[in-house]
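Risk register update: the risk that structure generation would not scale has been downgraded. Supporting records follow, first protein first.
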Amino acid sequence: MGRIGLAISGGPDSLALLLLAKANLPDIVAATVDHGLRPEAADEARFVGKICADLGVDHSILTLADRPVGNPSSWARQARYHALDDWGTAKKISWLLTAHHADDQLETLLMRLNRGSGVAGLAGIRAQNKTVARPLLNWRKAELEALVAQAGLLAVDDPSNRDARYDRARMRAALSKADWLDPVAAARSASALASADAALDWTTQQLFDQRAEMGTDRITLAAGDLPYELQRRLLIACLQALNPAAAPRDDEVMRLLASLNTGQTATLAGIKCSGGAQWTFQPAPPPRTISRNS
């Protein structure tokens, strides 16, 4: 298994992860990210360090130097994982564990359902993603809080978790009044959708290998007889094969599919896409420039 890294914020969820990992794993190290967004954050990180020291767990504080650009919540998440990735490389960890739980999964599922997400989005928080694993997705938050209380630990309280400016905080507040919803059942549904998404990805790759004819800067594909979802995934695969940076929005993909299925030609992500019995993809020519004589 190798060395395991733990992302520990000091909240009840991550402290429970720390306790469970200490009791069950032979070689663990922990890190706390100080995003610099709250004046209390530095003291909280040192507080976690003391708990880790008492447990005999190596602990690092990762301080983010950059300030947020755009959405602070989105920036914090991306910057946190980048810092943890660098730390994990330095510590030679095999896996990074985070403390996402069933209540987090229910929040994510409902938020994405409200945004009209497809199979991939409704799969929610993945149990495993590259070298990040989330072993607590079938645990309720209340169970984790009870574990921490039983150990006599006082968890950090992050007020941003209740800040109504953020979608997740508003969803969390709404769910606190809906105790008839079962987060563990929602976690099972998300897991089933993750399996379905993986199966669709596998099928897409098989179809791409069987049907895509690769030329020099050109792909030809017979996809008109396939279900919409497989067409959608194959279309994205073709775009990214020619332009690895392509990240089209869902609405752009929908419009392009409509064009291809009616034999039309359109351009997306710098790729000229032509419909018909065979779909063809090739780099779009550069835009024409008009010169003026002085």
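Supporting record for the second protein:
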Amino acid sequence: VHDALCAVSRTMESNAVVPGGGAVETALSLHLEDFARTFDSYEQWAIAEFSEALLTIPKTLAINAALDAIDLLAALRVRHHASQNAGDPKKADYKWYGLDLSNGTVRNSVAAGVLEPMVSKLKSLKFATEAAITILRIDDLVRIAPEQEEGQ
């Protein structure tokens, strides 16, 4: 009950919701893949890796539901790709598609009522990104000195 009340509170706080089931992460991932291709430097690799990391959410959802993560993620990516490159208005709705863990398929998360408070999603993405940046900065700072051989 407490979790449900917190979800309602977050929704009221942000006054907006986004589709669940990995829909947001999949859409962001595909947009970032396209964005990465506009760079011809080291940044392309970093953006592409961040894009791939976003797919950890839908992949983990599928694995935790004991479903075939590869097939589901492929189906989800196909739908989102079709929505981003659609001239067909029917395919434009594919942007709302997320994982249906009950049936092992993808579906329109908005129509199914699988929604998340936008403020929670934004904070999660922001904190995860900041944590990764912090780890990378620490990794750059920490250098292990080579071991000295005896007599040197």
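The chain has one domain: 2-139. On this basis the risk owner (M.S.) recommends closing the item.
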